[in-house]
Amino acid sequence: MAEKLPMMIDCDPGVDDAIAIMMALSQPSVDLLAITCVAGNTHLDNVLRNALRVLRVCDRLDVPVYKGADVPLLNLHNKRAHDVHGSDGLGGVPDPDPPSLDLVQSEHAVHAMLRLTKEHPGQVTMLAIGPLTNLALAIRLDPGFTGRLKKLVIMGGNTEGSGSETDAAEFNFHVDPEAAHILLSDVQCPTVIVAWETCLQNGLPWDWFEVWSSTPTAKAKFVSAILHGRFLTYLKSHEKVFRVCDGLAMAVALRPEMILKALTCPVMVELQGRVTRGQMVRRVKNTEGLPLGPEVKVVIRCDTDILRKLMEDTVVE
User: Fold this and answer.
1) 303 has catalytic annotation
2) CB 97: neighbour CB atoms within 10 A?
3) How does residue 234 score in pLDDT terms, banded at 50, 70 and 90?
4) Considering 12, 17, 88, 176, which one is annotated as catalytic?
5) Which UniProt keywords apply (predicted)?
6) How far is Cα 206 from Cα 204, in angstroms, rounded to an integer?
7) Please, which contacts does 308-312 make with residues 24 or more away whose CB atoms are closer than 8 Å?
């Protein structure tokens, strides 16, 4: 029997976070060790409930959920993405029997990250699809944390100065730029970044989406319900294709061969700019002569047929 892929997901569900979690759970090859939660798309209690809702839909409440940071490192950013993800983070879809937060583990998310990487050194793939506060705290507590990861895949940042949260910055990095800076300055494992522009350029056709979201299964009905609110209204009014940022990052983590084009280079996160705070910059020329951080792989183009197949697997029962 093939070895399973141990994985941790650090997230802030979030509609596309929910889809990414479901993608992982649909793959028999994945051993999901933990879901660690961070405030981002919505407030932390909502994030925790949403993670539990997704696990319940997938009949996988055995996966432990951990509570992490409820504010950014400097606590300068209090905006949530309720305009996109709804008031509760999952489209505002009522849940008549919401899962109890008593199901959340008592151990802090950051401590769980450190413990699990010590128990599985060099084996765990970490998918980070929310603000990077938990990972930055883990590095500060234990500088060897990322060195024990097999791989880190991040959905965040940008490559061409195009923002989702501001004119210049992507949401996850803009929520906690200091955390992104700490992580990308000190990361010690192979790191892949799926940036904002990459998500925009590697979407799926809307006609495919209509068929996919109409699949007659409980999982598909859940996905359709959380999508058919503010999230879908926003996408259809702004974009020519269905893009699922966190799902694309999960697909890259599961099937790295889907990467068709990438750039390997150091990156930095702007912390001071009045307009550009939170922007990720590829350090290709380094005309300033500043110290360069570790090289990371920035994904540019993907095989979306692989994404499509993984998304289809997600709603099968």
Assistant:
1) no
2) 7
3) low
4) 12
5) Glycosidase, Hydrolase
6) 7
7) 308/204, 308/208, 310/23, 310/26, 310/27, 310/247, 310/250, 310/251, 310/254, 310/255, 311/19, 311/23, 311/204, 311/212, 311/244, 311/247, 312/212
